[in-house]
Design brief:
By secondary structure, the chain is mostly beta strands. The chain has one helix spanning 67-71, and strands at 5-8, 29-32, 37-39, 44-54, 59-64, 74-77, 80-81, 88-95, 101-103, 108-116. The protein has a single domain (5-116), classed as Deoxyuridine 5'-Triphosphate Nucleotidohydrolase, Chain A (Distorted Sandwich), CATH 2.70.40. It contains one helix and ten strands, in the order βββββαβββββ. The N and C termini lie far apart (37 Å).
Length: 143
Amino acid sequence: MPNIKVQKLHPAAQLPRYAHSGPYGDLAADLYAAEAVTLAAGATLAVPTGIALEFPATHGALVEDRSGLAMRGITTLAGVIDPGYRGEVRVVITNLSTATVEIKPGDRIAQLRIVQKIEAQFEEVSALAETPRGAAGFGSTGS
């Protein structure tokens, strides 16, 4: 289990926390707004969390939607936090609904999923190996 240091940058900031822990607990920890924000219909804003994180070099994080907000048309964008980033975590949120959304300090706005860093080596080739799926993309499974 990686140890992630958290620095509070704002008095209203809350540390990320898991709502359910243990063997069948949550995959991601909740992130909280540190400031009040009004998100107009169709708008995109970076919502401050008031925290900075220090990951070990082997880990980073992905910022993901909360399912309850996603069902209301509130979604996150641009959610990669690299191990070397030490600035404030801001959650980029878009309001896809037709109504203005008020976010208050302490509201859960996203989930923080800790991931292990795997650095790949990319090799340019003239052709790729064939597979049964091939280049079939969106909708290729019939759904």
